Hints:
By secondary structure, this protein is α/β, with parallel strands linked by helices. It has 22 helices and 15 strands. The strands form four sheets. The protein has a six-stranded mixed sheet, with helices on both faces. The chain has a five-stranded parallel sheet with strand order 8-5-6-7-15, with helices on both faces. The protein starts with a strand and ends with a helix. Bound molecules: pyridoxal-5'-phosphate (PLP).
Amino acid sequence: MELIYKSTRGQEGVTASQAILKGLADDGGLYVPTHIPALDVPVEKLAQMTYQEVAYEVMKLYLTDFTEEELKNCINKAYDSKFDAQEIAPMVYADGAYYLELFHGATIAFKDMALSILPHLMTTSAKKNYVDHEIVILTATSGDTGKAAMAGFADVEGTKIIVFYPKDGVSPVQEKQMVTQKGKNTFVVGIHGNFDDAQTGVKKMFGDKALAQLLDKNGYQFSSANSINIGRLVPQIVYYVYAYAMLVHNEEIKNGEKINVVVPTGNFGNILAAYYAKNMGLPIDRLICASNENKVLYDFFTTGIYDRNRDFILTSSPSMDILISSNLERLIYKIAGDDPNVNASLMSALSGEGKYVITPEMRESLRDFYGNYASEEETAATIHDLYEDTGYVIDTHTAVASAVYKKYVDDTSDTKKTVIASTASPFKFARSVMTAIDKKYESMDDFDLIDELSNISGVPVPKAVEELRTAPVLHTTQCDVDEMEATVKKWLNIQE
Length: 496
Ligand SMILES: *Cc1c(COP(=O)(O)O)cnc(C)c1O
């Protein structure tokens, strides 16, 4: 049976390349494969492969309308010297767990794993579907995703990318990262408003039929790089398979031995990829879902009730400060027995009352998952203690996962070997990390902290951070919230 994609809300049948181009289905659902394919290469073989080779073996099973040449071409363009580790995703053992470092790409966080390949998947998809328009990626960002998307799309032929960020709503380092972005096809705009304003403005443009026609007339079409795109989910499955193969290769585990996986979770994309890997036959036992104080998912796994009606808490792991985990819809659909009607009614309750309740049968199917959360104090203590005990420094997001892993072991006494997804370099969150290690760092400025972090960890300052010190500002455009559309038209030089 050929694998294609259908919507979690019922709409039928598109190819992988069409799903990548569209992002979201027309009925508002997320694209899911008609079945989860089984790995068809034995682990002994995978254990001898490079990251790029494993990527091909995994992704070919999902991107069924890509030729071998097309897919290998995308993989080789994505996973190259932009990464500062030859393994692409190296693994470090510390204090009873294997940290899978997913932060060796251009913006030193895990979003690079998918966003470095998405532009190539998208331009290839466009060619396959005879789209001759230039693709314009439109993004609102609260800091990190916009930068990772720009780094991925910069100078990729046939694409342009426009990022809106709240002018006074991101950290100084995040702002510097964005306004120094290179690439003739990138455009960064600071808006006079908050992230929600940016997001709403972008959504409005996506939904505007007249604007779409105008773009069409001028040879453009909008697309989105957000984390519900199947072109972001599929590349994330790769590193779980690679991690398992590496453990076998290094004789840390026997082939077939089950492992656990811990994932610091926000939008539920990363852990869903681990779930897909498990369902492909990879010997993963529990999927441990780690939340920060925005613990909607912990409550969901413990009660079967998803309830976003609560205060939004700003934490030291901002990329996990999320109350609606969009990718959870793909899991809900699956545990509803692939029933789009059940899923659609739960999602409509979520957008209406901000809440839904799953049935006891659906809860039964969640046994693969374990959810817990870490408070701000526990997160800081975890960074501190791991550094004191081993010298290894982790970032705040990874620390949430590490703290939750300890709770899991206390709760279950499960001693299976465990991989923790390490989603950001500590250099990206140097202030929170360093003050967790020692309060004396509170008074230091940002770049001194970075040097000191390098000193105490013995890890060289990553290129992405080093370059920021001297990088010239290339983007100075600002606009009011009601000028977003006009700003886009002006930059694209669109004629009415
Ligand atoms: C995006 C992000 C996460 C959350 O990943 P999801 O796929 O949204 O669950 C965790 N850590 C970091 C550093 C991130 O950037």
